[in-house]
Amino acid sequence: MEATDDKEVQAYIKEKKNEFEWLEKTIVQRGDTILRVGTEIVQRQQEFFLKDDRPLKAMTLREIAETLGIHESTVSRAVNGKYLETEFGVFELRSFFSYGLLNDHTGEETSTDSVKKQLKLLVDNENKAKPLSDQKLVDLLKEQKIDISRRTVTKYRESLGIPASSKRKRYD
C-alpha cells in the first residue's frame, strides 16, 4: 500500500502509523512509570521486605510523586489495581502507602499501620477478664513513645474490628 501513488491511501497510512507510534510510546511510558513507582516503593519500604514482622513506614503518594517528578494522580493511577508478588505473598501496591503520626519524642513518623499492629498486639495480650480501655491503651502506647489521642485509638480499634473493652470482657 505504501508503494501506491494514491494520495488518500498515503495519507491514511501515515495517519495510522502516527497513531500506532503514539500508542506504542504511551504503553512504554506507562510501563516505565509503574516500574519507577514500584522501585521507589521497594526502596522506601525495605524493612517490610526484610523483616519478619513486615513493618511499614509512613509514605504518601505525594512523596513518591515529588521524588519521581510526576503528578500525584499519576502515582495513584500507577498503583491502582497493581500487585507485587513476593516469596511471602501478593500485595496491592496501594497497601504500601500509609500516613504517619509524628512522634514528639523522636521527631520521626510512625506509620498508622505499625500503630495499628501495636494496638492489636496490646489487645491480644490483655487480661481477658479485665480488658484494656481505650484510655489505658493510649497510656500504654505513650510508654512506647507513640503519642496518640483516645479518639484515634478508638478509630483504629474499630477499623481493626476490635470491640470496645466492655464487649471484650470474658467471665470464665
Reconstruct the topology from this structure.
Elements: H1 7-44, H2 46-50, H3 61-68, H4 72-79, E1 83-86, E2 89-92, E3 100-102, E4 109-111, H5 112-124, H6 134-143, H7 150-159, H8 165-168
Antiparallel strand pairs: 1-2, 3-4
How does this model look, in words?
With about 170 residues, the chain is mainly alpha-helical. It has 2 domains: about 5-95, no CATH class; about 100-170, Homeodomain-like (Arc Repressor Mutant, subunit A). It contains 8 helices and 4 strands. The protein has helices at about 5-45, 45-50, 60-70, 70-80, 110-125, 135-145, 150-160, 165-170, and strands at about 85, 90, 100, 110. The strands form 2 sheets. It has a two-stranded antiparallel ribbon. Strands 3-4 form a two-stranded antiparallel ribbon. Strand 3 and strand 4 form a beta hairpin. The termini are far apart.
In summary, what is this structure?
This protein is mainly alpha-helical and 172 residues long. It has helices at 7-44, 46-50, 61-68, 72-79, 112-124, 134-143, 150-159, 165-168; strands at residues 83-86, 89-92, 100-102, 109-111.
Radius of gyration: 25 Å
What is the count of DSSP helices, taking H or I runs of 4+ residues? 8
pLDDT < 50 stretches:
none
Overall, the morphology is elongated
Structural class, please? mainly alpha
**In percent terms, what proportion of residues is strand?**
5-15%
Q: How many strand segments? A: 4
Helix content class: 55-70%
Mean pLDDT: 87
- Total number of distinct structural domains: 2
Q: What string, H for helix and E for strand, traces the elements in order?
A: HHHHEEEEHHHH
The strands making up the biggest β-sheet line up spatially as: 1-2
Distance between the termini: 86 Å
Largest sheet, strands/sense/barrel: 2 strands, antiparallel
